[in-house]
């Protein structure tokens, strides 16, 4: 665990949230940072899966791309909602995520849910069950653009 | 500041429109799973637009940072909530439209 990184992160987070720079308040801040660090240490021992903060330029680029996808698919769903007759082709399919690392799978499933029109219903055995308003969105997901972007954040596949 | 005010007003109005759209979709869509999709319009694009509009109204101080945190947490928690909703519906035995059609054909 990177103690220095976490301390800095938590301290900055506290400062931004409180905005008070009186000694008493700063004291409380230091106390809570220390408590969180102690907890983190104990938790890391318990689950042997160290927490790491990784916000690199790749992650930022992905977030920007994801925001754009959200805008595009929102407009699509909005068009569906406002059209006089509702024309939907809801479909449910399984998408394989065997090639993706475990940690990335959560981000992938979350991104699928975050973009309107597609929703991850289940995640087990390396398969995400996706429910979509239109069949085309599932075909888009299967083409694997989002998956490729996600695997490129944290390096190569396992 | 005049330009920023206009921009923030436009963002807020468009955000409200998307929020309303989500509510409308909640009524117009046929079943549970499609309705969750409609609600996700509200929680993704509407919250992004409204919070960005509010950020432009601040003096770019600590309040801006707090709004960014709210946006960040919403982006993580809201899909988790709809995923939990959909997952429990599915494990509870609720069928989506294509599945229930198939079941009818078989029986």
What's the layout of helices and strands?
The complex is a heterodimer of chains A (158) and B (107).
Chain A: H1 3-18, H2 23-47, H3 57-82, E1 91-96, H4 102-114, E2 118-124, E3 127-132, H5 135-142, H6 145-151
Antiparallel strand pairs in A: 1-3, 2-3
Chain B: H1 2-28, H2 32-57, H3 62-91, H4 97-106
Describe the protein.
- The complex is a heterodimer of chains A (158) and B (107).
- Chain A has 158 residues and is α+β, with helices and mostly antiparallel strands.
- Helices cover 60% and strands 12% of the residues of chain A.
- Chain A folds into two domains: 3-47, no CATH class; 57-151, no CATH class.
- Chain A contains six helices and three strands; from the N terminus they run H-H-H-E-H-E-E-H-H.
- In chain A, strand 2 and strand 3 form a beta hairpin.
- Chain A starts with a helix and ends in a 7-residue tail after the last helix.
- The mean pLDDT of chain A is 81.
- In chain B, helix 1 packs antiparallel against helix 2 (32-57) and helix 2 runs antiparallel to helix 3.
- Chain B has helices spanning 2-28, 32-57, 62-91, 97-106.
- The chains are: A alpha+beta (158), B mainly alpha (107).
- Chain A binds chain B through residues 16-17, 19, 67, 70-71, 74, 77-78, 80-82, 86, 88, 90-92, 109-111, 113-122, 129, 131, 133, and chain B through 18, 21, 24-25, 28-31, 33-34, 36-38, 40-41, 44-45, 48, 62, 65-66, 69, 75-76, 78-80, 82-83, 86-87, 90, 96-99.
């Amino acid at each position: 665990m990177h103690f220095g990184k976490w301390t800095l992160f938590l301290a900055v987070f506290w400062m931004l949230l409180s905005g008070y720079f009186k000694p008493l308040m700063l004291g409380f801040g230091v106390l809570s940072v220390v408590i969180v660090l102690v907890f983190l240490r104990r938790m890391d021992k318990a689950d042997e899966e160290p927490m790491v903060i990784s916000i690199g330029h790749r992650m930022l680029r992905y977030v920007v791309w994801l925001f754009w996808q959200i805008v595009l698919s929102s407009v699509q769903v909005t068009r569906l909602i406002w059209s006089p007759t509702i024309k939907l082709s809801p479909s449910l399919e399984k998408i394989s995520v065997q090639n993706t690392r475990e940690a990335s799978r959560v981000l992938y499933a979350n991104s699928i849910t975050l973009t309107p029109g597609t929703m991850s219903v289940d995640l087990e055995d390396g398969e995400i069950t996706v429910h979509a308003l239109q069949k085309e969105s599932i075909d888009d997901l299967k083409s694997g653009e989002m998956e490729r972007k996600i695997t490129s954040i944290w390096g190569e596949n396992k | 500041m005049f330009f920023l005010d206009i921009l923030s007003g436009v963002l807020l109005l468009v955000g409200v429109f998307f929020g309303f759209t989500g509510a409308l979709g909640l009524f117009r869509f046929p079943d549970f799973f499609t309705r969750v999709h409609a609600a996700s319009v509200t929680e993704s694009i509407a919250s992004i637009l409204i919070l960005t509009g509010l950020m432009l109204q601040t003096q770019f101080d600590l309040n801006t940072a707090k709004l960014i945190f709210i946006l960040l947490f919403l982006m993580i928690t809201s899909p988790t909530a709809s995923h939990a909703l959909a997952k429990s519906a599915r494990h509870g035995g609720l069928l989506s439209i294509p599945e229930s059609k198939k079941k009818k054909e078989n029986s």
